[in-house]
Amino acid sequence: MITKCKFCGGALKYDADIRRMVCEYCSSMFDVEDTEEEKEYEKMQAMSAGKNPDGAIGRAVFTPEKGTMDMSLYHCSSCSGELYLNQTEVASYCPYCGQPTIVFERIAKTRKPDYIIPFKITKEYAVASIREKFFKGHFIPKELKYFKAELLRGIYVPYYLYDMLYKDRQIIRAKFEEKNSKGEKSSVTYDFYREAVASFQEIPVDASKKIPNEITEKLEPFYTADLIDFQAGYLSGFYADLQDDSDYTLRNIARRRARDRFNKLLYDDLMAKECQTLKSNPTCSFEKETYALLPVWFMVFTYEGDSYTILVNGQTGKVVGGVPSDKNKIALWFSLITLLVSVPAYHILQLVFDPVLFQSSDSILSAMWVPLVLISAAFTAGLKNYRSVRKSQALTRAETIKTLVGKREGRKK
Asked: Is residue 136 located within the same domain as residue 263?
């Protein structure tokens, strides 16, 4: 179903910049609640309850070799072209006429989202944010810094927000650093018993199997004060998926996130250098769950045969994701570091193994240690950052993300 303009019949799209529905043809603007999506949703809900004479709304497409249903076939209400959608898509584009399409039938047949955070970050802002991140990266290949804006796709990702009550009794081993009267440092360890109750509101869990939770957690925070009642009009002009992960899996993830937050509260209260939970007896109860669609911009690109994904929080503009590194630049950096370290190291060794020079060159030796320590510290920090980047690269190269975004590249938004 295409959301049409009341005046000219053109397709309406939600504009994140002005936060209204805009006609692509006559430029008329409407508030989302003034469009016909809710009536269409109610109509399709009645049809899915048994009033549809055909007994089905979308025709399933079967793959004989597997005997399973992979896609469903729908028809564009503008040009009658065929749309093949997977089992979780509810908003897409017609590959023939390019019109934004919302599959109201699917929303009606599955649980309707309770809330939605509409896109606040425009495509142009998302592109600028990614480019800024790329230009700050010293080892990012030059050609990637001038990517095409058409690569971006705005997708509403399904989330569950959980209100939870978490209780636990723990024995925590904490290590502290102390100083004696002479100023000498030493470590001491104590065991503590802690019993506490914590209430957590709106812990977010991504309900899509296609996106690793480690990535969506990096996109946070989403500010739930911007949640509004779900209206299908906000989907127009974007893509959207529905939940495809099980309630059991999602609740386990929520428990893990609640546990991590609970432990952090206990550890921070001790103000120790290190903490370790020795014994734990947690109980967790779910007070409320909310189904919401949250906005994310995706960009998938290929470099030297590998796919990478950059994600932008569609509410805050936060950019996450791993990008490839220019191997030549990295090799040059390591060579320079090696050269800078080897020169003072060579002279230090000369002084150390020559007793005469060593006794008469204390000040020179001390001066040489300074740059050596600084360079070594910079090298260690750079190596740590490189490992972090490599981890992000591995997460954002997941084939499931490529599938989620890649198949939507037929329409240039």
From this structure: yes
